[in-house]
Specification:
Layout lengths: L2 H14 L4 E5 L8 E8 L5 E8 L4 H4 L2 H4 L2 E4 L11 E4 L4 E4 L9 E5 L2 H14 L4 H8 L3
Antiparallel strand pairs: 1-2, 1-7, 2-3, 3-5, 3-6, 4-5
């Protein structure tokens, strides 16, 4: 593969890192790959706000109404990359470096529809786990 093709692929990957984009890759302390949704990107493209997709809602979360209200159901019928209905865990937003998604072991899978993306962003905000400055950084004035 030529250097130009590598740069083109890297550039395309970087362009795909936008709100609603879903990636699959490894995550620290988890023994399997995880789907991650890019919920927001800082204007300077240094930081992202992301959430994990889980196959089911954890028992711990099920017993906590506030956390439970921050789960967004994602229907497998809407997303070819999901083999079954799953849940975006918006109760625990992750603030990460943009570069996390530029590495080769992170695979772009698709993009959320607008309705689901808005729900994810609203539930992240409702979680209370971002400061006002962080909300403005990732989602603009809401």
């Amino acid at each position: 593969m030529s250097e130009n093709n590598t740069l083109d692929q890297a550039g395309l990957r970087e362009l795909s890192i936008a709100p609603g984009a879903v990636f699959l890759g490894p995550w620290a302390y988890i023994d399997h790959e995880k789907f991650l949704i890019v919920a927001g990107v800082s204007e300077d493209r240094i930081l992202v706000c992301t959430v994990m997709i889980n196959s089911e809602i954890n028992q711990y979360i099920q017993k906590r109404p506030r956390m439970l209200s921050c789960q967004v159901e994602l229907k497998s019928d809407d997303y070819g990359f999901l083999s079954h209905d799953s849940y975006a865990n918006c109760a625990q937003p992750i603030k990460a470096k943009f570069d996390l998604f530029v590495v080769d072991n992170m695979k772009y899978c698709g993009i959320l529809n607008e309705t689901d993306l808005i729900q994810v962003q609203q539930r992240i905000i409702a979680s209370g786990n971002l400061t006002v400055d962080e909300m403005n950084t990732f989602f603009g004035k809401k």
